[in-house]
Amino acid sequence: MKPIALLALLVMSACAPTGKLVRMQAQVEIDRPIEDVFAFASEPLNDTAWRAETEGFTSSGPAGPGVLYDEVINVGIQNGFEMHTRVTGYESPRLIRAESRDGRVFFAQRDFYALGPERTRVVYTVAADDHLIRSITILPLDAGFAGQFYQIVIRSYLDRLKTIMESGADRRLAVSARQAP
User: Fold this and answer.
1) Phi, psi (5° rounding) for residue 33?
2) CA 65, 88, 99, 111: dihedral to nearest 10 degrees?
3) Three-class secondary structure of residue 136 per DSSP
4) For site-directed labelling of 78, which of 27, 52, 140, 153 has its Cα 20 to 30 A away?
5) What does the DSSP assignment read for 85-119?
6) Contact 156, 26 (CB under 8 A)
7) Long-range contacts: 112-117, Cβ < 8 Å, 24+?
8) How many CB atoms lie within 10 A of CB 74?
9) Are 83 and 100 in contact (CB under 8 A)?
10) What SS3 class is residue 79?
11) How far apart are CA 126 and CA 58, in angstroms?
C-alpha cells in the first residue's frame, strides 16, 4: 500500500462514526419579556426566520406536547436533508424539546429563563450522534470538530433571534400552525 493511501485510510478510520453523542449549546439574553420570546421561539414554524439552514417546516398542529414536525434543512454540502421530530417536552413559557421520530439519535431543546420583567435568557441545546452528523454533512468530520463548528452556528441563530425580538420584527414574522402550508 502506498504511503498516501495508508495515510488516507488512517484519517478516514479516525473520523469514522462511533455512535458518540455530540452536545452543542449556546445562549443569548434578549430584552423582551419571557412570554413574548417563548411565543415566537418555541414555535418551530418560525425557525425559518432565524435559523439560516432551515428551508421549511410543516407541523401537525400548534407547538405543544406530541406535535410532529417535518423540517427540511441545508447543512454544509447536504441540501434538502429531512428531519422528522416530535415535541417530547413543552412547558410554557419555560421549555420546548423535540426528539427524532425516525430512529436517529437527535434532540433539540430550547430553555427560557426570565431575568427580569423585560429580559429573557434563551439556552439552545442540540445533541446528535456522530452517525447523524456524518449523514448530514456527508464528510468524514471528527465529531468534536463538527460539534464545535455547529455551536458557533447555534450562536449565530440566537444572535438573529435577539435582533428579531428586540426590533419587534417577531410580530410581523410570526407564523402559526394555522398559517402553515
Assistant:
1) -65, 150
2) 90
3) helix
4) 27
5) EEEEEEETTTEEEEEESSS--EEEEEEEEEEETTE
6) no
7) 112/34, 112/37, 112/38, 112/41, 112/42, 113/34, 114/33, 114/34, 115/29, 117/33
8) 13
9) yes
10) strand
11) 20
Residue 45: predicted pLDDT: 84
| pTM summary value | 0.81
- Site of grid cell 418560525: 46
Q: Grid coordinates representing 175? A: 407564523
Q: What is the pLDDT of residue 143?
A: 63
Give me the tens of pLDDT residue by residue for the chain, a chain 181 residues long.
433 333 333 333 344 446 677 888 999 999 999 999 999 999 888 988 998 888 888 889 888 999 999 988 877 666 787 888 999 999 999 999 999 888 777 889 999 999 999 999 999 998 887 766 666 655 666 667 767 777 888 899 999 999 999 999 998 888 754 444 4
Q: Is the dihedral of CA 105, 58, 27, 93 positive or negative?
A: negative
